[in-house]
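The data are quoted verbatim for reference:
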Amino acid sequence: MDGIAQIEEGLRTTFARRLFKPFAKAVVTYGLIEPNDRIAVCMSGGKDSMLMAKLFQELKRHNKFPFSLEFLVMDPGYAPENRALIEENAARLGIPVRIFETDIFENVYEIEKSPCYLCARMRRGHLYAAAKELGCNKIALGHHYDDVIETILMGMLYGGQVQTMLPKLKSTNFEGMELIRPMYLVREKDIIAWKTAYGLRFLQCACRFTADAADGLKDSKRQRVKELIRMLQREDPQVEQNIFKSVENVNLSTLIAYKDKDGVKHRFDE
């Protein structure tokens, strides 16, 4: 059995319960895929989006209703060795990627305030535009369960707000386009176990603001929140699940105020 076949067999056996089943559950639970969808599977070169592409291929193999996939990689200005790593991993995993180039890294490098936020917004805009040119109606991003609960806590601790990362979201700038997150219920520890099992090495960020080209964690607010959750989890195994459920079990009668979809604040004591 060659490398690609071995990895694909692993998603049906060893990693089926931890990876494919939560992936498929998210697709069904949140209605992420509909008949005749054309989905741009957006791949950054990191472990999450590379695994997402393989899970999409496995889902397509079942083909319970017709949908099509485009595996899309945007090069925002990677160093040649990082671009090469993405291409090597795609070949090793059997993923037929389309790569297009932008100069995003060059444009945000001189930005002092929130360059990562601006970079993320610009990347998403380019991905929507490229996906639409390919006739896609959805883009899929590789955010996972841990990203969701970390985002909830980061919003509270550093942003003074209660919000979450939605499993699907209609685009306001690209008519008819929708963003989906089919990795929504997949745990990061299981993605790392999959990566380790096959000796895979992926990009982390690889922009000029990070020193290492491949997997590593930056000293950031997100990393501090990861460590906080890890500490609390040791004391109470339900902590992660409770954070996730907290935004599904909002008790409006106990809130002081809320913002509507237009950002207008409404107070309950007025």
